[in-house]
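#structure-requests
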Amino acid sequence: MEGAIHGLQGIFEVIFIISIGFILSRKGWFDSNTSALLTKIVMKVALPFYMVVNMVRDFTHDSLVQIAPDLVLPFASIFLAYFVGRIAAAVLHIRKDRQGIFITCFFIANTIFIGLPVNLALFGPKSVPSVMLYYMANTTMFWTLAVYHIVNDSTGGKNMPLFSMQTIKKVFSPPLEGFLIGLVLVMLDVKLPDFLVMSFQYVGNMATPLSLIVIGIEMSLISWKDIHWDRDIIGALCGRFLVCPCCVLALLPFIPITDMSAKVFTMQASMPAMTQMTVVAKSVGADVQYATEISFLSIALGLVVIPLYMAIVG
């Protein structure tokens, strides 16, 4: 029981910070303009630095080369969940302006803020390399394929071509640029001065709490009576908690990895929705209310689902 509570600390932290944004918004401190400002700070300032510092701090050239083969399963399972999400969106006739967020729930998880403490509680420090492997695949797919589909939500159902200058301009966001810069620095074995790393870390650490405050503000603007447990919501939550981890399990017999990585990848795939999904939806003009509902409901359900997966996998 104690282990489960410790593993859920990420969920408790998330709910606490969301509640700050919610309560202060209801008190009149924040409004939709504040949400837009915080979104801009997160997307254009905090997240790029967060991406750079996470890469240079957690990886080296040799470690990236060494773990590269183990990246096959995370990428393959995420791709599989992505295709299942696209099929589900078509079969369930999900609205065109919600399909990007719906599909994103199938293949993108909250792998650091919630996933890391859960895996540390369950498997200890030896799980960190596997956690970071899934994080790298998850982050790459979110800031490319997921953002592409969320941007499509804002175009009124007119899908942008996957390879075009318009798509590159929309998808090549500051966070993706930060991730690529960090990747280049690691591969070239460039060491940043300590004062820069610490400065980047201080600024980057704002990304997650500000994103959660944005979710809290957006929640305060929603009439919860209007939330319906329809196929849009139920389907997305099933994709997040059932389809994504099942895709990992389905590929395990075909892609050999260590027992630790198998357990960690399964846990990572079963985490709640990515908190930045709401921020991206807000920044590109997609259905931010739907993204907020899915983000919060997945976090709330995580209080039940994560202990269940911890018991099964552990």
